[in-house]
Amino acid sequence: MKKADFHVHTNYSDGVFTPEKIVDTALDAGLEAVALTDHDNVLSYDVANNYLKSIGRENELEIIQGVEINTLYKNYEVHILGYFMDTNNADFQKLIKNQQEARVNQTREIIELLDKKENIKISFDSILAQVAKGGSIGRPHIAKAITSAGGTDNVMEAYSKYINDDSPVYVQRKTVSPQDAVEIIYDAGGVPVIAHPHDIDIAESLIKDLMSYGLRGIEAYHRKHSPAVVEYFSSMAEKLGLIVTGGSDFHAPNILNGQILLGKHFIPEWIYDKLVQEKKRLDMA
After folding, report:
1. Are residues 228 and 263 in the same domain?
2. Residue 265 has pLDDT above 70, yes or no
3. Helix crossing, 178-187 with 90-118: angle to 10°?
4. Helices within the chain (DSSP H only)
5. Does pTM surpass 0.85?
6. Are residues 274 and 234 part of one domain?
7. Would you give the DSSP letter of residue 137?
8. Nearest-angstrom CA–CA distance, 30 and 265
9. Torsion angle defined by CA atoms of residues 149, 150, 153 and 156, in that order, rounded to the nearest 10 degrees
10. Number of domains in the chain
11. Sheet of strand 243-247, all strands in order from the earlier edge strand to the far edge
């Protein structure tokens, strides 16, 4: 058993910390394992591991290869987490490449519409500069660029006015289905898990459908999930024969109480063992 956090973002997607800062923060929080799960991106893993070795503390912290794939299903945004997959797998690499291209295309289209319809001028480079080289750009970065350009007073206003399906300048990303994401992660030797399912009101029927594509877990423990929600999805996982995972879904320090949310001890230590056991089971299948 290990103290762990299985849902962490870096500046290779929409997190604010570098992989190195995540490592330092995880060590300070007393974590023994952390999964880097950037959106549609796996570049932070090697950076974090190399840094961990450079400071001579690789025996204190395990970095787990993870990813969070953004998918669309019947107008629902469904996030699929993957753990321990072979990132050199050809289909997985193609998935990541296609997801990155979709992000770039969406961003360029939104920039053009902002200029034409709202006279808000932002550059693609101003968005690209917000992530590490090769990182995943997305809505948070567009919202910040809008605010920096004076289009809104704050990021929340940018979201409410421009970064939503009802906005005339918003373009929905042409992304993969959750079924395809699960299947590709599974076929690449990974453990596919549905992220924060409380966000999806068709979660139960979708989870049952995704199981036929290789879904192996439910993220029952999440900072947005109440104890009742944790119990609900934990019971569902047990009934369906799936594992339970959890994580802080860390993006940035919790400004409200001055605390670092990464490593908050609401994730049971046994989750690490279940995840590792599931990976071993899949490898033997």
Report:
1. yes
2. no
3. 150
4. 19-28, 44-54, 90-118, 124-128, 139-148, 155-162, 178-187, 203-211, 227-240, 270-284
5. yes
6. yes
7. P
8. 10
9. -30
10. 2
11. 4-8, 33-36, 62-73, 76-83, 191-194, 217-222, 243-247
pLDDT tens digit string along 46-104?
Answer: 999 999 999 999 999 999 999 999 999 998 999 999 999 999 999 999 999 999 999 99
Residue 258 has pLDDT above 50, yes or no: no
Distance between CA 79 and CA 37 in Å, rounded?
11
Task: Please say whether the beta carbons of 282 and 189 come within 8 A.
Answer: yes
DSSP 148-189: HTTSSSSHHHHHHHHSSTTSTT--------HHHHHHHHHHTT
Among candidate residues 190, 239, 202, 197, the one with its CA nearest the CA of residue 222: 197
Query: Same domain, yes or no, for 14 and 72?
Result: yes
Return the closest-CA partner of residue 25 out of 48, 41, 2, 43: 48
Query: Domain check: are 59 and 143 in the same one?
Result: no
Give the model's pLDDT for residue 260: 54
